Predict the 3D structure of the following.
Amino acid sequence: MKHVPALDSLRGIAVLLVVFHHFKWLGIGWIGVQIFFVLSGFLITSILWEQKERRLRNYLGRFYWRRILRIFPVYYGFLFAVSLAYLSVGEPVAFGDLAPWLFSYTYNFARFFEPEMTWRYFGHLWSLAIEEQFYLVWPFVVYWVSKRSFLRLCIALVMLAPLFRWTAGLYFLAHDYPPVRLAQCVYTLPTTHLDAFAVGAALSVMDSRKLPSPRSVFLGVFIALTLLGFYQWGLLDPHSRVASDFGYPIYLSANLQYIWGYTLVNLLGGAMILCAVRGVDLFPGWNNRTLRFYGKISYALYVCHWPLLGAIGR
């Protein structure tokens, strides 16, 4: 895949949103994770499509080897450092119970079984588990599905994901989960984010030149997101409103917002990717050196920023 510098800028925006959210500077900053998911769908599908004509063994081997080299050193290096701290001083206390989930990339399921566990230092790693689960399945989908059927599949996933979230919510409600924990558990299910990956994947196989103006697409989604956010904000209890989340508090727990809210945020991420690949600047400095720098170190920064917050007592 041809390198697109503006996508590095978009990565930089995404990781800074997440960091600002965890520093409690920007309530809506959690959407950076959704942008990462959409980016993964776009980039991974683009890479896989270029290799699709290879034999299955070579196709899979090349893909997984490159993923291992890119992902494992930072991730397992971080866990190794935490393991040394835990064995030396017994901190962080929760690591002993959470280590099996962390090392196996199943951490997104831990909240179902360890609801009272302290999530500090590791609270962000659930999204990397979902990414790995996506990598296990998606190469086979790309390999075996034709281009026309693939696009239809992506559209179907975008349409079905809200149904999956609604069904999951009904399940947790039937098991007496309180509203916030219900929304937290829905949030960390891999099926919850199928539409994020599918939006990015669909963009990777479409001819972007035949799509509407990228700026028009972005503005349309942004206006819809903003109007619905203000409506949702008005429905919230005045004591629970936070101005910096713009009507989209993390987990989207109120008024069934988790059913539709993620899809709208994911479409915004898709519109930003469309702008990036078409060379459209959404704002002055969109494709600047600083954002590209943060984009290039976004993975390491994402993995390591939460322990830094813990170390400085945030």
Observations:
- The chain has a mean pLDDT of 92.
